[in-house]
Amino acid sequence: MDVKDYRAEAAVFFCKATNANCKSLSFRRFARASEAIRFAVEELAPRALASCSLEVDEQHFFGREIRPLYDSPDYPLRRRPAKLHSRRA
């Protein structure tokens, strides 16, 4: 599945906790789906990315479905050099 519109508003739901017992979710809204995807891949810890969800219009992406959106040739933003976020992959 791919994002229909990388310019659409989006939201990311994620857990900041570093252990497996996440008791509350954090929420962040973005003006564009491309920015939300970049945040999830480049800023979240690997465990948080694995358990987060992305909502774009009526589409929902969970955990491992998000990284392929970032790696897609259709992704419109410049990517951070791989070595700067490779620990998050």
Please, could you describe this protein's structure?
The chain is an alpha+beta fold and 89 residues long. It has one domain (10-88). It contains four helices and four strands; from the N terminus they run ββααββαα. It has helices at residues 33-43, 46-51, 66-71, 82-85; strands at residues 10-14, 26-30, 53-56, 59-62. A four-stranded antiparallel beta sheet has the order 2-1-3-4. It is globular and about 35 Å long. The mean pLDDT is 87. Keywords: Plasmid.
Any key phrases for this structure?
about 90 residues; alpha+beta; four-stranded antiparallel beta sheet; 4 helices; 4 strands; about 20% strand
- Report the strand count: 4
Number of helices: 4
Radius of gyration from the CA trace?
12 Å
> What is the helix fraction of residues, given as a range?
25-40%
| Lateral strand order in the biggest sheet | 2-1-3-4
- How many structural domains? 1
End-to-end distance: 19 Å
Shape: globular
Task: State mean pLDDT (0 to 100 scale).
Answer: 87
Low-confidence stretches: none
**Approximately how much beta-strand content do the residues carry?**
15-25%
Keywords: Plasmid
Write the layout of secondary structure elements.
Blueprint: E1 10-14, E2 26-30, H1 33-43, H2 46-51, E3 53-56, E4 59-62, H3 66-71, H4 82-85
Antiparallel strand pairs: 1-2, 1-3, 3-4
Brief write-up:
Keywords: Plasmid. The longest helix is centred in the middle third of the chain and has 11 residues, at 33-43. The protein has helices at 33-43, 46-51, 66-71, 82-85, and strands spanning 10-14, 26-30, 53-56, 59-62.
